[in-house]
Amino acid sequence: MTPPPAHCILNFNKTVFALIIINKAGGLIYNRTFHEGGLNKISTNDYLVLAGTFHGVHAITARLNPLSPSTTTSHRTSISSTATAPAGGAASAVGGGGGMLTRPEAPSGLEVLETENFRMQCFTTLTGVKFLLFADTTQTNVDLAMRRVYDLYTDYVMKNPFYQLEMPVRCDMFDRKLGSYIREINNR
Amino acid sequence: MAHLGPGKAASSKEQAGLRYPSNGKSIYHRPLNRTKTAELSQSSFAYLFSEMVSYAQRRVTGIQELEKRLNLQGHPIGLKLLDLLLTREPPRTQTRPLTIIALLHFIKINLWTHLFGRQADRLEKSSNPDTPDEYMIVDNEPVVNAYISVPREMSQLNCAAFVAGIIEGVCDGAMFPARVTAHTVGGKEEGEMWPGKTVFLVKFQPEVLEREALIGKG
């Protein structure tokens, strides 16, 4: 690995390098680098491959993830009750078993990948969109930054009437707000 | 309001006219929303407006037609808001605006405050001597455009055409027939400060100016 350039050393421990957004089919819909020199440049094609590959690996790791025994049994009972009883009966059975708690959490796949120079954090939304944030290994509060990026996405992409679902994100407002937020983090 | 008579006889007598509460306030003086600040969720408005734009976008051939449709969606709102806002004025000032300036001030202050919770940013008259019928209302960041990024191939479009329609409705309702259009001017003269800056160009019909001139003489 090449050593990081000088300007990277100056503020080396608080940097978000790049963001990738992957749609639920595994396609790359957004790709932006915030900090030159933090990561080596790779071609757009490589980014597409990275997105597709990560999507596949993520899906397999999610299957690998075992369900804990308690949630497995409650999952079974709730399924059998919905299968045999009408909707009202199922609802009462679920309610009796502690409401929301009986539903098993969706297995989450790969969340963090770490290399010598950067850490890649993955966040999957309930609709299956994946946000990959590449940050310095010592970057703190990546979860918080991720949350904020997701907020910006819901505001400036999902509320934009000209955005088509699953298509590449081309929204000026999103670019602008994301840029200023990440700049704020990187200059802190 | 205080005591309702028992039985049918009393209620049929009451129906003769509108009943007013003793303090003179009717239901039209209060917002439907009874929360303290009477605010609405900007997110739900953004989703609604986004769907309105998508709806208007169906079966249109060009940007002009899309703006026309958005304008038409706003027009009836303006007509009704003029009445509502004038009703809410104190009785002494409950008259409709009679001059162009009074009308534009009404729009800049009352209408904007009612719709967006703040005044419009500026009011200007066209400096071009050829177009004395043009006035401009400036909003630095229109609420309706808060989350909208217009794609590059539609760069002339400004979804605030909906608000332009509301303004047009108010002007038409006050007997100042006009054409109102919305134009994006951000990023040109004042740089990146207000990228969404929008000018509402109000172009009055010639008869309005004619009448204005006559009033000026009198």
From TrEMBL, chain A:
Keyword entries, A-Z: Endoplasmic reticulum, ER-Golgi transport, Golgi apparatus, Transport
Keyword presence, Endoplasmic reticulum: yes
GO biological process: endoplasmic reticulum to Golgi vesicle-mediated transport
Record field: compositional bias (Low complexity): 68-93
Compartment list: Endoplasmic reticulum; Golgi apparatus, cis-Golgi network; Golgi apparatus
Family indicated by similarity: Belongs to the TRAPP small subunits family. TRAPPC4 subfamily.
Name of the protein this chain belongs to: Trafficking protein particle complex subunit
Native organism: Staphylotrichum tortipilum
Automatic annotation (TrEMBL), chain B:
Record keywords, A-Z: Endoplasmic reticulum, ER-Golgi transport, Golgi apparatus, Transport
Source domain of life: Eukaryota
Localization (cell): Endoplasmic reticulum; Golgi apparatus, cis-Golgi network
Signal peptide limits: none
GO biological process: endoplasmic reticulum to Golgi vesicle-mediated transport
Quaternary context: Part of the multisubunit TRAPP (transport protein particle) complex.
Task of the protein: Plays a key role in the late stages of endoplasmic reticulum to Golgi traffic.
Family to which the UniProt record says this protein belongs: Belongs to the TRAPP small subunits family. BET3 subfamily.
Protein name: Trafficking protein particle complex subunit
Lineage: Eukaryota, Fungi, Dikarya, Ascomycota, Pezizomycotina
